[in-house]
Write the structure tokens for this entry.
Amino acid sequence: MRSQPISSRSVSLDCSLNGREIAVSDALSLEAGASPPSETDSTFSLLTFPKAAADAWRKVESQYSLYRRKQDEVARIRRLSSEDIWLLPAERNGSGKYITSEAREADRRIYRKDAFAKYAPPFVLDGSSDAIIIGYGGIVTSNYSQRRLMVETNRLFGRRVELYSLYGNDGTRDSLLKTTNEDIISFLEERAEAARALSSSSRPKIIFFGYSTGALAGAILEARRPGTFDSMVLTGMPLFLRSHRDKVLLKAGNFADRALESASEGASRWAEWLQESGAPGGKVAASLCRLLGEKASGYLSALHSITVGSRAGSGIHDFKELRKVPYLKESTVKNYVAFERLRDEAREALLKGDVECPYLANWGADDELVNVDKSHNALAKALSQRVTGEVQKAAIVPDSPHAAFFGPGGKVYREQAWSFISERLASGV
């Protein structure tokens, strides 16, 4: 009987290559009419095997070699700085290519905890105080990434610049566990008030440069206390996130936090009421409520202390300028709960029109964290549906990451931001 051609088959090979015996299992497409190697032949030459087998082998060998190099590199970096690995950048860069040994060694010093702490304190540049520029950084990073932009802005406008890391981001776990969303906003409010008090002008202009989470805090503060800022540049606001995983985890963490917090406070209030009521069995019930409240409080503390991997910085090695930006590789649930609450309040305030001062909101087109189209379109639509006497704009910066002032589009970002600030200063607003 005439044999039928074989189109696809799983073949197990024992190939002799450079004196090493290597087992490979792969799905190979064999040429029509070709016969697979005999099962009794454990060793045979690639020259006698169909071309598809040789191509498949080269592909397997290449992928395996890449995998081994990556594993060896990660292991070596972990051995070199095991105590600081949580501050190292992502193992992959945004383009999917593995970072070379040379690049990791050259950049490694900046990711130490002491290096992160070095860039956490305020960065102040002196200048005229009739208009003061305040910058506020993002979550899981210091103010290092904004320093170059602030230096250039200070030189261009000659105004005093005060740049701050997001409150609580000093590189220590204890600070992250103590920081709430209200702390982040209150700190910014204090800095704005101090800047006004510092100026010799009767009404100094306060210009706000907010980045990522810092931009959310600025929008909230202006909505709560109109007139805090005279104008704002809001960069990379995460109104909507790109990753479905991030959205689900943030919502779940925020829900669990609110549930445990309510349970703890509710049990404490019931315990006080039962203790004071004098009802029969009230003391026993009060003791039970206190016990439940303590349990809920303990679970809440445990939830807050859980560390979660950070996606921030996942694309930083695509841009040379960002390779030395310190990023926390992990942060606490407490920190992410604060972020989620800021995000919800800022999004509502911006889309409802509660932020009345002039502002420019922009995003990098290649943002690796934020859903740029959805964030930009939602805000642009909200702005188009209301009439306001102030200049409020939404824009996208081409060829730029989450930190839109970096990358090939950095020049476009500066043109947008500086043009907006020039208009505000010239108009007296």
Notes: Residues 116-241+312-427 form a domain with the Rossmann fold fold (CATH 3.40.50.1820).
